Fold these 2 entries.
Entry 1:
Amino acid sequence: MRNRICLLVLLLTFLAGTDPALAQQSLDAMIARDIASLVETYKTLHAAPELSHYEEKTSSFFANQLQSLGYTVTERVGKYERPEWTSYGVVAVMKNGAGPTVLLRTELDALPVDEKTNLPYASKVKTKNDAGQEVSVMHACGHDIHITSMLGTAKMLSELKSEWRGTLVLLGQPAEEVIDGARAVLRDGLYERFPKPDFVIALHDSADLEAGKVGFTPGYAMASSTSVDIKIRGLGGHGARPETTKDPIVVAAQVILALQTIASRENWPLDPVVVTVGSIHGGTKHNIIPEEVDLQLTVRAYKEEVRKRVLASIERITKGIAIAAGIPDDRVPIIKFSETQVTSATYNEPQLTERLAAVFAKTLGQENVVKLPPVMMSEDFGYLSLDQKIPATLFTLGAVDPAKVKRSKETGTPLPSLHSALFAPLPEPTLRTGIKAMTAVVLELMKK
Ligand SMILES: [Zn+2]
Ligand SMILES: [Zn+2]
């Protein structure tokens, strides 16, 4: 009897290896077998989020799971610019003969958001942030979905080793939300200490797309982001004696309006640019003209040359308006382009992205695959491509209850976005689709 079962298993494995439809059925069956426990994993992670730079428990859970699946795991990968910070990056490697090296990436961190979903597994975590203030913490970007999808994918691929060849590298990246985690792991020799990938793949969940669907965006998909701090210095005095002052508030107002001409008048309209002044602080009282005003900006662009030109324009316009206002040379505005709060654009290598889209269509059905327009949001995934030297792509995983998407379209009421205290992915179909899509991608890129 036992021999017969063995023969049957062999026959099924053989058939699964030869017939794509059967292989898919068996992947569905494998996911169905594990989905309940994966949903539990997701809920556990969701209830225990950790802030960027503090992903200690999340990373060790992730590492242990991968180790038990047979991966060679290294913890605490990464070096931050501030050496006192520990990096909780995890790298898991599975070698399976000669073939391409594929890196899959998940983020590990959560956000300082006070969850308001009222779900039974909602986070109640409070902790101290870098500044020592108490904050609530929530997986409001869905990185818990990404971690769980990766664990599910890792399990499928460890069981399907006869279907692929090459080296699989799984990266648990810390500190994505503060955009210094990808650089930290690269600085610590991600591509020297571990096999350097031929392809880099990630997924990100979506707060607009239905669970069960995936999206792809060839080419530029997300913008670069640069934080800019401007200190406009004037000469303060009495609010009733403006003639004795150089009013930095009026200068700041002129600067803010003039900065809007960068996108509208200086830039080729088909090169997307955003210049947003997100914060302005100055003054203490109605009748005092202050000494200075502080502005905080974010700049978004796709192409590096456009980003550089926009930054130069910000400097020129700000200084020019200060000079026009008669601010003396020793009080010119101080403009700082952040070297830490900066990230490159996410460029989805078109050929690789189209190849993935074809795999998705085959695996999930064409009706569940959508081409999505690029956005001006940012993330640090682009660094892992080493400035587009390694083909990389980040695809979108639908995470919302389809009934909610339908209602939102009908009523015109927007759904809670990523980073919202109300963001609540629908775990089971989202994980099922994420694991199926990611496993299929690896089987395509590493097929025998
Ligand atoms: Zn986020
Ligand atoms: Zn995110």
Entry 2:
Amino acid sequence: MNVTEIAPDVYRISMFVKEFNLQFNHFLIKDDEPMLYHAGMRQMFPAVREAVSKIISPSKIKWIGFSHFEVDECGALNEWLELAPNAQAVCSEAGAIVNMGDYAIRPAYAMASNDVLNTGKHNYRFIRTPHLPHGWDAGVLFEETEGTLLCSDLLHQNGDVSPITDKDILSVHKASMLEYEHGPLMEYTPYTHQTAGLLTSLADLKPKTLATMHGSSFFGNCSKVLTDLNLVMKEIWAGEDKEGDAHTIPDQVHAAR
Ligand SMILES: [Fe+2]
Ligand SMILES: [Fe+2]
């Protein structure tokens, strides 16, 4: 586990998984009501708990946040809820309705777009981002004083990269996504009629730090990175269907109708 304070009170707890050539980052916010953003996978739980315990007592965690329902985001949620008796999952209203009611051992705290969660010194604004990076229930949290955007899978970069950088992460992201396009992890993010607008609204927040779930966090001109991300996503995923590609209905389905 690699632990780095990437912004005031925001600790990036990172595990590099060689088989996936990928870092899985969990963010611990040290505050009066501590928050863990990304519960992580169940298999990683003992290692993340150990890393958290070097910063705060894990039983003191109050909030467990995540963007969307997926194992790296919230697989170990119930392990954390058992360990921290006052902890509560925090997610979108859709996430609370569709997933948490059945999955979590305690009810989740559902946030509507623009709701603010105060953790003590820090205010986290929730922004609903359906299908960005993916999932109906997706959203992000933005810390308003220090300008840290907890942006989940956006700007995912493969490799064992540095914890935080001001270098070009968009090119690394693009190369990673193009690599995925040749295998089972293709079509990471749907490009919808809302994608450009959502990315513009995130850019308008003028973040100072982008806390990414996979790869380096970024500091510098975050608004430009988010605006340019739209162009990269559009180029990779907004293309027209080609004859014979995976989107077309196979011949045998036509024959069966
Ligand atoms: Fe994801
Ligand atoms: Fe992820």
